[in-house]
Each structure stands twice: as C-alpha cells, then as structure tokens.
Amino acid sequence: MSVAPVAITWAVAGLLGAMLLPWTHRRRLAALVPLAAAVAALVSQGGGADLVAASAAGGLVLGRPAAGLVLLSALSAAVCLLLSPPPDSGDVLLTAACGALSAVALATGSPLIWGACFVAGAALFGVRLVAAAPARATLAAARVGTLGAATLVAASPFLPVDAAAVPPRAHLAAALLAGGIAAGFGLMPLGGWVTGGTRLVRGAAMAPWSLLLLPALLLSAQPLDSVLPADGRITFGAMLLPAGAVSAAWAAARGLGAADGDRYTRVLLADLGLVAMGLATPQAGARLGSLLVMLTHLCVGPLLLQHPASAGARPRRLAWAALSGIPPSPAFWGRFALLTALTTAFGGLLLVVTLPVAGAMLVIALRAAMAAASAAPAGTTRARAVSLAAWVPALAAVTVGLVPGAALRALLGVA
Amino acid sequence: MEPNEPLLAAVGFLAAVVVTLVDGRRAVTWASLAAALGLAPSVAASYGADGAVVLLAAAVAAGVAGVLSHAVAGRLPRVAGVDAGVPVVAGVEGLFGPRSIRVATAVLVLPAASWVSFNIPLGSASTISGVLFPAAVVGGCAGMRLLTARTVLDIAVGVAALGIAVAAAWFLSAGVDTLSSAATVAALAPGAAITSGWLRGRHRAVRRPAQTAS
Questions:
Q1: Residue A150 is nearest to which of B122, B143, B182, comparing CB atoms?
Q2: Longest dimension (CA), chain A
Q3: Between chains, do B181 and A112 touch, taking CB under 8 Å as contact?
Q4: B194 in contact with A at a CB cutoff of 8 Å?
Q5: Mean pLDDT, range A157-170, rounded to an integer
C-alpha cells in the first residue's frame, strides 16, 4: 500500500491542528492530529516487501513492519500529546512534519529520499528545539542531528554497494551510514545534545525525535548489515560496536547518579547503545531484540518523557517496572535477545560490558520506581482523560512483555 | 566534446567558497544560487541539461519562497522567539571569528573531496572518477557550515546547499529514479529558505530607536 494516504493525513491534520486549535482554544485536542494519522495507517496496512532502502529499486510502498511502526509511532505520539501540557502550533506542526517524513523514510526504496527525510526531520526538530530553548545543548541538537542525517544522504550516491565494488567505496558508504546512525541514536561522542536537550525541553517537544524519527531510523537501519558487502560490513561493525558499547556503558553509569527527571533519557541512550551494537551483527536475535527494545520505548516513552510530576505515581511505577529488565518485562526479552545474539556473534568478552549495563539499568529503573511516589505532588488534580491516558503506555508495555512474540507478530509482522 | 574537468572543478570550488562565506538576510538564497550555478555545468556535462535545470529551478524557488515566507510572516503579529540571524549562544571574543572558523574547516574539505572524487567510482557500474569533485566540495562545505553553525540561518544555509550538492551527486551517479529523486532532495533548498524566512519574519528582532546624545 502506498504511503501517500498516511503522509497526506499527517500533513493535512497537522496544518489544520496548528491553525484551528489555538483559534478555538482547544489546544488539548492536538492529540487528534497523530490519531488521524494512526487511523490512516490502520486502513492502509501494507503487505509489501521488507525494508531494503539501501538496495531496493525505488517506489513508495509501506511494507508490513513499516506500516506497523507508522501506526505505533502515531499512537505513541497521540498519547504523548495528551499527557503533555497543551502544545503550541509549532509543536503540532513539527510532530506532523516528522510523522510524515518518518513514514516516507520507511516506505521509500530510494536511499536518497530515505536520507533526505531524516535531514529534513532532524533540521526541523533542531530548529524547533533552538526556538523553544536557545542554549548550547539545543544548538548542538540542530548541528549534530542534521549533520548526522546529512552523512546518511551523502552515502546514497555510493549505494547500492554490490560485491563487485572496489573496497574504498564499500568502506566509505559503510562509514557514512554508521556515522549517521551514531548521530541519530545519540551515541558517544555525539549524544550530549540528548541529555542536555531533555533537561531544557520535555514531553511533546522531544516526541518528534524519540517517538517518530528514531524508531524509523532504527527499523530502516536493520537490513543495512546484510546489504553491505563484506568489506563494508567490517567498517560498519567496527564503528557501531565500540561506539555502542562505550555509549551504553557511559549512559548506564551516568544514569545511576542521575536526577529523577534525567533517568529515562539515560536508560534510552543505554538501550540505543545496545541496539547499535546489535546492528553490527546480522544475527536474527539481535534484530528481534532491537525491535522489542524499540516497542518498549514506544510504549513507555510518552509517559516517561514528561515531567515526573505530570502523571500519577502508579502508572509511572508500572512503566519503570516494564523498563527494568526483570522478567517478564518487555525490556528483559529485548535485552536478553540482544545480549545472546551479541555473545554468539562476538564471543563472551562483550559480556564484560553488556551485563553491567543491563544490571545498571535494572538499578536505575528500581530507583526511579521508588522515587515516583515522591515526585507526584499531593493534591494535584488532572483531567480524567489524562489520568486514564497515563495508564495506557504502562499497560501496553506490560502486555508486550507478557506476549513478546505475539506482539512482534501482530504489530510489526515479524516472526 | 570532452568536459573540461579543471574548469568544472574551479566553478564548483567558487560555489563552495560562497557557501562557506555568505552571511546576512538573504544567505540561503545566495548559497542556493551559488551551489546550483557551480554544479549545473558538471551535471549538464555528465547527465544532461534537464538535470541542470532541476538544480537551477530549486535555487530560484529557494529565492522566491524565502522572500514570500518572510513577507507573509512579517504581516503577522510579531511573537517572542529566536531571530534566525542572531547567534543562539553569545560567543566569547576571540582571535578568530565565525567566518575564519568556517574557512578553516572548509580547507579540510578540499583534500577529502579530491580523494573521494578520484578514488571512489560512482553509480552501480560506473568507473568514472574525478567528476564528483564539485559536488563533493560543495556538499562538504555545507556539512562544515552545519558543524560550525551559530545561528538558525547557518543551519538553513547548510541544508539548502547540501540538498543541491547531493542532488548533483545523484545525477552524476545516475541513481534510481534519477530525476524525481534528485528533484525531491533539491527541494530541501526551498524548504530551508521557507523555514528561515518564516522565522526571520515571525521572530524579527525589535529595532530599538537610536539613542540621542543628551
């Protein structure tokens, strides 16, 4: 199925929402914008080929995993907007633009369009962050995010890299792709803007990156290792494996001492480090683990991206439990699959990094769950719809954890 | 007729100089025009005239769209926000200014672009080398502009020039859906012009009246 209905719905709903909601004093209804896109994605569920942007022959067709992700991202953004303070027109427009761009990036078979979507999305997101909170961290988001996406688009003239290609070309294409992914994932040393940015802006302002662009990049980067030739795979893995390991270890270590509001960002970055390591191997387990980790963050992100005092303590505790890595939480299955695949592919030495990271994330989640009660100010009144919506992310995450295989099959069509 | 590669490289280099140095309210327009004019001869020689037209059309669209969006935004009530041309973070006084830093980083692009264009074949079956230099040097300078950005305008200039440079590289490599894909990525230039023009108009700095000596 063509991606056009979804992209057009994102664009039209975003424009209407940005113009009409402030005028009618109904900014709280901004959640209807991604909800409309979710409905469009639901009725145009695709059955096309899997994502092979780096080697496909073109077209704008949503494959089954891509259609599932577009639907999930839109739903996740809708819940995030519902839980946030009423967003202004700029946030609504940015969310809609990034939603449309991520859908096109997931559907396109052209590596040029794929990279260009991320350039446009990263630039708009960075400029919006700068406008919302002018500071070094937000300027770094615009610089690093856009430049990272620019390396993805710079790789496109050198793709597809077939086995007959001369080694410098394979190495260059792989290095550019790995650099772009590292910047998009916020890996060390390119991830400072994520932690700095989330201290300045929260909720709906961060949603375009964490709920729309990042999952699209994660899913569309999955087949890269298998389409690159042997020389390119070596470069790709040699860049992402150490960057991911160092990033995961650093984020987990910093998360142990982080303030309550910074903990989620550290856990997200640590998980992204593990996912980046997983991209360095073609093991099926790494792919499944990455997708489960992505599903987990799509579920809990709308709640934990908000200010700690913005939602009740109990849903936050449940969300942190889902993120802890204690079985049967979805994070456990995802990290377990990733760690197993990494150990199979690269040997037990990696456990020196990955096991402490998983342990640190468990401690961070438990601390955050305990702190959730104290973060909620007593006597705060919230709209009933918002209080109910706060349970949706946590319960969705618990459901994914209880039936991880069925969730992957039903939501993304991945067996 | 064989294309004169040194001449094409020189034109591309001049475009890269403009992309690196240009500042001011119309910076996106000038950078887009310079990139398109600098890369159009290479594309016309390697791909065809329609490729060059796409690049030039994107640059002209950037100029027109930037002016229009600024005019429309200027008619709306001014709102508080970051002026696109004002540095986001106040820099400290230093020996070298922002342009010097941009030039220094752009100098590093030259050998890199030269190496890439003479050692990496383009496209699925091509073994042509050397033709990529103009696009590589303009794209590299656009990347450096992004890396050293101090204002929103710098980001817009970088994105606009990058879009045109990558579109030119796509023409040279004859990638999939060549014309439509290149036109799409060249549309980053008008997109960047619209965004920067809108922000300049919407969040324009309040001009204070000149203080008279008492």
A1: B143
A2: 68
A3: yes
A4: no
A5: 73
- Here the ipTM equals 0.89
Tell me which long-range contacts A371-375 makes (C-beta under 8 A, separation of at least 24).
A371/A260, A371/A308, A372/A308, A372/A313, A372/A314, A372/A316, A372/A317, A372/A320, A373/A313, A373/A317, A375/A260, A375/A308, A375/A309, A375/A313, A375/A316
Question: Chain A residue with minimal CA distance to B140?
Answer: A154
* Confidence class for position A55, pLDDT limits 50, 70, 90: very low
Nearest to A120 among B173, B182, B191 (CB): B191
Q: In A, which residues are within 8 Å of B124 by CB distance?
A: 160, 162
Q: Kindly determine whether residue A57 and residue B175, on different chains, have CB atoms separated by under 8 Å.
A: no
**What is the span of the domain harbouring residue A277?**
4-412
Q: Do B152 and A130 touch (CB under 8 A)?
A: yes
* pLDDT for res A162: 66
- In the structure, what pLDDT confidence band is assigned to residue A202 with cuts at 50, 70 and 90? confident
Q: How confident is the model at residue A379 (pLDDT cuts 50, 70, 90)?
A: low
Domain coordinates in residue numbering, chain B: 5-118+130-202
Query: What pLDDT is recorded for position A56?
Result: 46
Residue in B82, B121, B175 closest to A112 by CB: B175
What is the number of structural domains in chain A?
Answer: 1
Question: Does any CB of chain A come closer than 8 Å to the CB of residue B158?
Answer: yes
